[in-house]
Amino acid sequence: MNENLIDIYIMGEHHQVPDSLTILQALEYAGYRLTRGVGCRGGFCGACATVYRVNGDYHLKFALACQTRVEPNMQLAMIPFFPAHRPRYRLSELKGTAQEVLDIYPELLRCYGCNTCTKSCPQDIDVLGYVSALLRGEIALAADISFDCIMCGLCVSRCPAELVKHHAALLCRRLYGSRLAPRSTHLAQRIAEIRSGKFKAELEQLKNMDRKQLQELYAAREVEPEE
Amino acid sequence: MSYPSPLEELVRRVNQTREQRLKQSFPRLGAEEKQTLLKKFHPDYRADSFAELEVGPNAGERAPKELVRVLEGDSPVSDGSLGFGEFEYETDVLVIGGGGAGCAAAITADDAGARVIIATKLRLGDANTMMAQGGIQAADKENDSPAIHYLDVIGGGHFTNIPELVEALVTDAPEAIQWLENLGVIFDKNPDGSMKTIHGGGTSRRRMHTCRDYTGAEIMRTLRDEVKSRQGITVLEFSPAVELLTTPEGEAAGAILLNLNLNRYLRIKAKTVIITTGGSGRLHYQGFPTSNHYGATGDGLVLAYRAGARLAFIDTMQYHPTGVAFPQQIVGQLVTEKVRSLGAQLVNRNGEQFVFPLETRDVVASAIIRECQEGRGVKTPAGVDGVWLDTPMIEVLKGPGTVKRELPAMVRQFARFGIELDKEPILVYPTLHYQNGGVAIDAMCHTSVRYLLVAGEASGGVHGRNRLMGNSLLDVIVFGRRAGREGAQLAKERTGSFFPGLEHLSRWRQLLRERKGTGVSVSPVLLPDYTRKPGNRIGGQGVGEV
Ligand SMILES: Cc1cc2nc3c(=O)[nH]c(=O)nc-3n(C[C@H](O)[C@H](O)[C@H](O)COP(=O)(O)OP(=O)(O)OC[C@H]3O[C@@H](n4cnc5c(N)ncnc54)[C@H](O)[C@@H]3O)c2cc1C
Ligand code: SF4
Ligand code: SF4
């Protein structure tokens, strides 16, 4: 590993770390054995939300520690947990209207439209875009725009209106998936066929085949062409 | 161009041969050719990386050395650490592990009226399930059937899978998809509502269902939200199980958890225990980097084994052929198989194809290792081996914009390091990805220990010696639900009084002393240690000196 050491500051403490590391690796290199602020290590779970500044620059920056390389003079802190409320509701009791989402999260109407959330999203999601879509009653659009949300909460930590919008977006997606998306007739049909026992005999036969028979069948499989 | 100059030259070679390769389809290997390739190059066949178990139900069988070490480990708790009859919690069903299988089990047990506790290591959903990108299989199209799916699964597993488990997997599959959809999972669909499905390695029908390239995340965040909305489910985060509790008769009866925030033990009495702790990539078998989440340390296998449960297929791991080999910061992280499903070819240093891209994973991984060992691979500046995955080819085959549309998570991941997937090929090398085996189960998730059920990646038998992409997310939902239902039912039937204790641990310790002497390690591992110390892997993903 190349050892070009740079200065960084972890919660104010000075450390020298190789510049080839991610923020997460740098924390570990410095000696932190983490239980908070680390999850999948692949950019999917949102556990390692990190805030930093670079000395001499007033801008606040946001990143996922596992996906971002360290830079010289970084002043960093993790935000592994940010209080976010999730009101009690049961999806099964909802119909799928925007009004229902707003009844559950009425505070969304307080959005100032300041767009700070969008600037703080490490996934480059148009956060204000999905909040606005929801406020206009467009659940499908809100679900679509927010799809890549990893629920890290950074947008919540920065919101002057204190809005927990990533939870509202999750509700939109769940409503879209369960209520609004067009249903698949082939899926329903297959389930009915299975329940009626249509494939039982064939499966029973396969289960009782010896290896050689299976091998032959497998080798003779017809493979559906690509589109 | 974002590659350092020695690599840049090689990228050009890939670009130059693209047009010609578009016209070639690399032939699939025959059964015998596959076997020869596997025996020569697959890590499962590297005999010196395995050891024989001497203690426990699988004594005499082989497993990777790193796994043997933790299976034959000692518990962190002392036999006397259980104050008499004192439990912080009592419940019907205790689910250990809050990933996909755990949440599916908890929801289903709650539906059946059981009181449920989920104990999990980090946060709910910090799990391999969250990371799955590629998709989930189910035979729900007209040209497909559970029987065709069955044959693909068992052929993929080299005909070693347990037939009853495969039957359950393929039969419950369409219903599992519908269950997820009813909970709000958004699958990729055509305007008429039919599912958009694609091929995966080893499939004979296009039956891979996707949620863009966030399939696992979409499933996991939905399940997590559903768990949170149920009052009958208590979630204990940062509380991994470190030992099971058993009755004097050897039946499961609860667990001891370690609260990681307070470093304090918690005792839970439960009528049934469901282990859903997932895989073990973070044990870094043979020094491989891994695609797995931080807590994938095989704990469930350790807990179950000490309590007397038999394991199955623990001598085989899945090395995903396409882990990132460059940039160094994300070495080992996964490049989803969907990239090959969409048409990207694998290309060696000379710009030539060397394997049909959608052979089963073990075959593709072996072919990549062969290219590198025989000098047709590429070495990165950090000394990591790799071959090219020709992502720009997707744009040529499926039209400009396809890469950005179909692979947003990956585009984002590489863009952070200045690599444009739709314009430049990427470097890949096999990464430790999936634990093919685990605790032996039957079709209702029973183990050889009464009242102990196992589901998901912690179980063994469903996939035999090799799992196909998209069958694990499916396994997690199908068997998670089965375990939940069965766990609730068993809890209902367990009406007599019972006394959880640690007798199994006293017996285990005696065996360890007799067979292994002193110097065994403490397990479960809970979390890997990547701090800078001699012998540790720096950065977790790097090819440290292990
Ligand atoms: C990067 C990646 C991509 C993948 N892509 C696909 C794909 O496209 N399609 C597919 O089908 N499969 C895919 N897989 C495989 C699939 O995601 C996993 O096998 C599956 O999700 C495992 O689910 P699980 O619930 O069994 O385990 P997990 O989802 O890993 O959950 C296990 C949980 O148990 C917890 N735990 C561990 N130890 C303890 C303990 N001692 N006490 C309490 N809790 C504990 C963990 O923290 C975790 O939360 C992928 C895997 C990875 C890593
Ligand atoms: S929308 Fe908010 S919670 Fe979601 S990824 Fe962006 S910052 Fe994180
Ligand atoms: S930060 Fe808050 S107030 Fe500002 S636009 Fe976003 S949601 Fe609205």
UniProtKB/TrEMBL annotation, chain A:
Occurrences of domain 2Fe-2S ferredoxin-type (ranges): 4-82
Molecular function per GO: 2 iron, 2 sulfur cluster binding; metal ion binding
Domain 4Fe-4S ferredoxin-type: 100-133, 139-169
Keywords from the UniProt entry: Iron, Iron-sulfur, Metal-binding
InterPro entries hit by this protein: 2Fe-2S_ferredoxin-like_sf (IPR036010), 2Fe-2S_ferredoxin-type (IPR001041), 2Fe2S_fd_BS (IPR006058), 4Fe4S_Fe-S-bd (IPR017896), 4Fe4S_Fe_S_CS (IPR017900), Beta-grasp_dom_sf (IPR012675)
The UniProt record lists the keyword Iron: yes
Family annotation (SUPFAM superfamilies): 2Fe-2S ferredoxin-like, alpha-helical ferredoxin
Pfam families: Fer2, Fer4_9
Full protein name: 4Fe-4S dicluster domain-containing protein
Organism placement in taxonomy: Bacteria, Bacteria division WOR-3
UniProtKB/TrEMBL annotation, chain B:
Pfam families: FAD_binding_2
Keyword Acetylation found: no
Gene3D superfamilies linked to this entry: FAD/NAD(P)-binding domain, Succinate dehydrogenase/fumarate reductase flavoprotein, catalytic domain
Record's keyword terms, sorted: Flavoprotein, Oxidoreductase
Gene Ontology BP terms: NAD+ biosynthetic process
Active site residues of this protein: R361 (proton acceptor)
Domain (FAD-dependent oxidoreductase 2 FAD-binding): residue spans on this chain: 92-473
Name recorded for this polypeptide: FAD-binding protein
Superkingdom of origin: Bacteria
The organism of origin for this protein: candidate division WOR-3 bacterium
